[in-house]
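Let's do one together. I've listed all components of the complex below, 896 residues spread over two lines.
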Amino acid sequence: MRRYFGRKLLIYFITFFLAVTIDWLIPRFMPGNPVQNMLARAAVRPEAAEVMYSYYTRAFGLDVPIWQQYLNFWNALFHGDLGTSVYLFPQPVAKVLRESIPYDIFLLLPAILLSWWAGNKFGAFAARTKRLDNTLLPIGYILTATPYMWLGILLAWAFGIVLDIFPIAGAYSFSMEPHWSWLFIGDVLKHWFLPFASLFLVGFGGWAIGMRNMIIYELEADYSHYLEALGAPRRLVRKYAFRNAILPQITGLALQLGVIVAGALVTEVVFSYPGIGYLLLAAIQNQDYFLIQGCFLFIITGVLLANFLIDIAYVIVDPRVRRGMVGE
Amino acid sequence: MWSRGRSIITMLVLVLLSVGLLGALAFGQVYDRDETLYVSGAAWGPPNDWNPFITWSKANTTGTLGYVYETLFMYDPLNDAFIPFLAEKGEWITDTSYEITLRKGLTWTDGTPLTAEDVAFTMNLGNQYEALWFAPMWDYVTSVISFGDRIVRFDFTDDPLYQEFDNNLYNIPIVPKHIWESKSEEDITGGANENPVGSGAFLYETHSSDRNVWIRNDSWWGNDIFGAPPMKRIVDVRFSSNSVALGSVIKGDVDLSNNFLPGIATLAEKGYVTTYFDGAPYMLAANTAVLFLNTTKKPMDDAAFRRALAYAINVDDIVSVAYANLVAAASPTGLLPQLSKYDDQAVIDESGWTYDPAMAAQILADNGYVDLDGDGYVEAPDGSTIALEVTCPLGWTDWMESIAVISDSAKAAGINIEDVTPDYGSWNTALTTLGFDMTLNNWANLSNTPWTLYNLLFRHPIQDIMGSGNFGAYDNQELFDLVDALAAVPTTDLAGMQAVCSQIQTIMLTEVPMIPLWYNGLWAQYSEAVWTNWPTEASNDPARLPSTWHGYWQLGGLLTLLELELAE
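Okay, and this is what the predicted structure of the assembly comes out as:
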């Protein structure tokens, strides 16, 4: 078991290193010059513009050779310093992220887990149940094919503007200061619901369809037919089928994480939800190297961590993996 | 396994509930609707700093200069008048000496008196630190000295740039010496300046990534002079997209929205919102959208071609299709309606242009631009193919539609121009490094002088990086000299300014170095549900601007808020 996780950890570290390197490299390949873009709107006389340009280039550490910048980047990273944002100058990137990331986790974690759990339950339940198969699953297909943004806009329009039961912007009312009270917690949940729902619904549709197909496949397997022939009750057969069918769904979850995070970023923009979604978009448009790096660092760490947890979960739920490790 | 999961969830809920119960006892801060003004439309990112000297990020904390820090004067662009603000009066004692008298009883919000020493200190920062935006003023200012508590004297070299100086008088924020004198250069030019101490009508209260909250300064020096603000708080909201902003305006969650909202004309007609004008263009003009042409590149280096292009662009379609009549077509001189007294109508009548494809075709044909290969587009006189691009940043939907119109109408006139939308960063870099054929720009805001626009259009000298003007690198020393001459005309000398402007316009309209197209609006739509007495064309006394954009507080934006009234 130690060897298994040791090897896994090594792979994760290499992935992390490569991903972060690419994350550092790609913004710098973008055409354009961030400092110049930042100063363009300052509208000062040309003489002053040159002074300001060299001053700020130095301030961002962009005046040294590129390899030096790369080494400086790792060095700073190990000291917990993510640099200063160009787009949000003079805010440090770490501070900007610290204010945004809690919202992302608050949105993503429940949406991913609940949609996975509910989708699988529903898919398993719906498989081979004629009426559900014919009615609700087509809806699942539509949901999973819906772009996050589009569903978000529809929900905002229907529940926010037409029915006017949910707010359409912000993480809490613009008339409130954060504090501990039922009123405020209710307000936060109310603002959270629509972005959550649009993430949940798209995910739910996908997992339900996946599970339904897996269950049908498992019910056709020899062991199921054998159980049926022995006269096992339908519930029991389905229970075994579910346990087998859940394994590919766990792998699927690991594979889907990146897509879900990307979807969450778009959803946040639609609902003006203050996570890193809008930040990342603006950072890319403004070629804010440091903020782009910071946002992706969070995404990379998050996805790798989640994958690692899923690896552990896999060991727990799949006896074959467990047995294989003991045999080693 | 599932039951274990369920018990964890139950635990979580229990913890949350108990925390909530404890918290319910704590004091909750909820703003009363009738004491709070909600505004939006200035910020495009989370609040990043409250340093009044970092100009390019102030949109995100709009009001830093306006609510908190204040200027010596305000300027009323609708009546072309300076309004004494911190200053009681300012006068030229000689041609090279200007004296300001401050009002009595000015105080900083920490209780310290605001004196002439603070003003002199602020001005001298520009002499000390090159990275401050008003440092170039010190090319022609020799000293700024305070006399006593209320007198500040500016001494000048022999050729002061009066136009720029006047502009600075209502744009340089005065900062408290007792706080700023101990700051390092880094902190002054680039520090975040959290918890700012100013002299203004509002204090910084709090912020989060999508809002700024300002609270009334009950001991503001201006309460007796300009009237105390009627609202206790101002919440400045940032929306991440226009559709969210539009939704919030319709719901009445926002009192004043300065977002550009396409289709607002329809909502105004139906009475959902109020705008400055009852009919088109609904909005006041804020700046001129100019089509910059890369004059270092063929065929844009040919004045005849540029002139033909000016005739070929269907500005009426931009106004009616891309903007649904929210803007008005610009004068060929590019000067805003508020500055129209500097337009020389005789020059415009003689050399101006309007949309006229026949005229465009005529000019092209006369100058050797003919369609040789029969593809419907003209070739250059030397026979080479013309294939150009017009650009604007991706996502700027109104401009994207506008350049589509430019492309269509130019093609109809036989000039092959495609519309292309790179993302903002690469557009911006291309803009400043001659990396474009033609592109839109509007970086000269409403001001007290036509020099502001000419300083954008004819920025000189020509350099490798044209960072903040004359992006097409149009090189004409005669014109540059005229712009410099205008800068040095005293702002009180109207005839002198008009004479120089006329000469500039003569060159501009014959050479067509760039093409002014339309006036971008001072986007503003207001809800009268909670707050009334918004500025409209009808109630325009005194002139106020309905804007929360950075740089507009001194142009009457603040006075607008002071004169609001609670709806019945």
